[in-house]
Amino acid sequence: MTAYRLVVISAGLSKPSSTRLLADRLADSTVRQLAVEGRTVDVQVVELRDLATDIAHNFVTGFPGPALREAIEAVTRADGLIAVTPIFAASYSGLFKSFFDVIDPDALTGKPVLIAATGGTARHSLALEHAVRPLFGYLRSVVVPTSVYAATDDWGTTGDRLTDGLPGRMDRAAGELAGLLAGRAPAGPGAGDTARAETEAVVPFAQQLAALRA
C-alpha cells in the first residue's frame, strides 16, 4: 500500500521550541489515527529556522538553494501539510510567511492543511483565524475546521466542561486531517507536475471573453 506523504512545517526559532513540539504532537496524532484504518504515513519535517538564509537569498536571486528546493518539492508533492508558526505581534512569523511566498501559488491548491500556532498568551489565539487561515484560503488549500493554538499555560492542561484541553484539540484537528487524507488516494511521483499542468491548461480570461462576444 502506498504511504501518504505528510509534510510538517515548523517555524520555531529556538531549539528545542514549543512550535516544533506542537508540530510533532499533531503529526503523531495524525499518524496514529490513520494507522487505526490500516493506512501508513511517511512524515517529513521541515524546520524553517534552518532555511532562513536560503529563503532570504531566494528573494534576492530568484533561485532556491538545494536545501530550500528540496523543502519546496516536498511541500508540492505532499498529500497533506501540518503548518505551525509562533505568533509575533498578533500574526504569523515573517519566516513562516516568507517560506510560503517562495512556493508556487498553485502548489497548495486542494491540499489538506492543518494549521496551528504557539504563543506566550492566549490573547493571540485568534491570530490563527484572522491571519493564518486566510493565508491558506488564498492559496486555495483545504484547511481543517479545527485550528490548534497552544499558549504557554495550555501545556499539561486537560480543559474544563466547556473547553477541550490542548490534547483534546490536537486529537480533534489531527482526526480531521486524517479524515481528509483517508478520503484521497496517495499522490504518486510527479503529482505536483500534474497539478501544474492542469493549472496551465486553464483557458485565459481574454479568450473566454472573445468566445462570449462571438
What report would you give on this structure?
The protein has one domain: Rossmann fold (3-Layer(aba) Sandwich). Helices cover 45% and strands 18% of the residues. The chain contains 8 helices and 7 strands. Strands 1, 2, 3, 4, 5, 6 and 7 form a 7-stranded mixed β-sheet that branches. Strand 3 and strand 4 form a beta hairpin. It starts with a strand and ends with a helix.
Tag the structure with descriptive keywords:
CE1759_FMN_reduct, 8 helices, 7-stranded mixed sheet, Rossmann fold
Quick gist of this model?
This protein has 214 residues and is an alpha/beta fold. It has a single domain (4-188), classed as Rossmann fold (3-Layer(aba) Sandwich).
The name of the CATH architecture is 3-Layer(aba) Sandwich
What is the radius of gyration?
Answer: 18 Å
Structural class: alpha/beta
Query: Total strand count, please?
Result: 7
> Could you give the distance between the termini?
51 Å
> Which geometry do the CA atoms define?
globular
H/I helix tally? 8
Order of helices and strands, N to C? Answer: EHEHHEEHEHEEHHH
The major β-sheet equals: 7 strands, mixed
Taken together, the total number of domains comes to: 1
CATH homologous superfamily assignment = Flavodoxin domain
Give the percentage of residues in beta strands.
Answer: 15-25%
| Name of the top-level CATH class | Alpha Beta
Please render the helix and strand layout as text.
Blueprint: E1 4-10, H1 18-35, E2 41-47, H2 52-61, H3 66-77, E3 80-88, E4 91-92, H4 94-101, E5 112-119, H5 127-138, E6 142-143, E7 148-151, H6 166-182, H7 191-200, H8 205-213
Parallel strand pairs: 1-2, 1-3, 3-5, 5-6, 5-7
Antiparallel strand pairs: 3-4
Helix pairs in contact: 1-6
